[in-house]
Hints:
Elements: E1 2-3, E2 9-15, E3 35-38, H1 45-59, H2 69-75, E4 85-95, E5 98-104, E6 109-111, E7 113-114, E8 117-118, E9 124-125, E10 127-128, E11 133-135, E12 138-141, E13 144-145, E14 154-155, E15 161-164, H3 165-172, E16 182-184, E17 189-193, E18 196-197, E19 211-219, E20 223-230, H4 234-240, E21 245-247, E22 252-259, E23 273-274, E24 277-284, E25 307-312, E26 317-319, E27 322-323, E28 328-329, E29 333-335, E30 341-346, E31 355-356, E32 368-372
Parallel strand pairs: 3-19
Antiparallel strand pairs: 1-31, 2-20, 2-22, 4-5, 4-20, 5-15, 6-9, 6-14, 7-8, 10-13, 11-12, 15-16, 17-19, 18-19, 21-22, 23-24, 24-30, 24-32, 25-30, 26-29, 27-28
Helix pairs in contact: 1-4
Amino acid sequence: MSQRNRTMDLIRFEPLDSLFFRDGRPYDQGEHGQADVASLFPPPPPSLVGAVRAAGARALGWKSGHWNEAVRRRLGDRESLDPLRFRGPLLIRNHGKANTCLFPAPANLVGRSESGTIEPESLSLLYPGTSGARCDLGENVRLPSAERIAEGAKPLCRNGWWIAREGLERILQGEPPRPDELVHRSRIWREEPRVGIARNPETRTTGEGAMYSPRHVRLAAGIALALEVDNLPSECRSFLESGPHPVGGESRMCWMRLDDCGLTLPKSPPWPNANGRIRYSITILTPADTAKPPLPGDLDYAGLRGKVVSACLPPPVVIGGWNSEKRTPLPLKPCLAPGSVIFLETDAAIPEPGAIVGERTNWGFGLVAVGAWN
């Protein structure tokens, strides 16, 4: 577990049209089953990191093929990003002259929602239960519970709800957010089914398996993707803003705008001290690349100090990637999904705001918010 204590450049990705980021299913020309191929959104960190580094390499004179030593020294290689450091990606929306981050609703926030609206009186928070239960995780497991759960209430993260920074800060302090601090996914982006057919450029004909139908993503007005980067070469900074660049699958184009305001992450509250033990929570903001999911009793999980007491975990997000040198997909790996919440106890120091956990943190994986529970 570590954190960043430096000033980073913010890159805003503003698409010219729709976007497409492939999920874990095969998406190769000539294969069957290319109907209704969903886009993974928000995109995993390597998708945007790769777009920035490719644009940076073109700024340094790269045309095609392998990067030379001069480019790798400035932008890193496939195994290591040094000297670059990234944080994100996150979704941001314009509020006047300020940018507000949007995060997936934490998995411990439950409530009733219908037709894109929230019932305020149904909102409540889950925390580790006071008594243990016997289950497939073992004996005396403190499953998440609440003093009051409205009938029909479900984790809002599973119904497509997102939350503004101010609302997430309330949750980190142990209070439910206000309904106006919650935003449904339909107001952030929408999916657009597309149909295409591959043609042989020489014969101008098609063949079997040439039909495909992806589902693209179109961002709502005022919404952008944001990624912070450290140690970006000066030659690359001006080139990024010189024109649109390909981002994600199917070479969809985005403007990359540099902004020096940076990302404003949720503040951490004071932590209650229970008989010498500090109870704190970790809310995952970007996918966390950990060796395994947290289990009750785990010590120093993913570099976090203390013992895991309980957790609220949505389904993992499976992330692969693309090897541009070998032109082959990378192996798929499950990661903790944004919105996952882990509850811990410790008698040592706790992480500070802006902490990162797990592996591949230089790529943007494992950004977390730190809260309290009692």
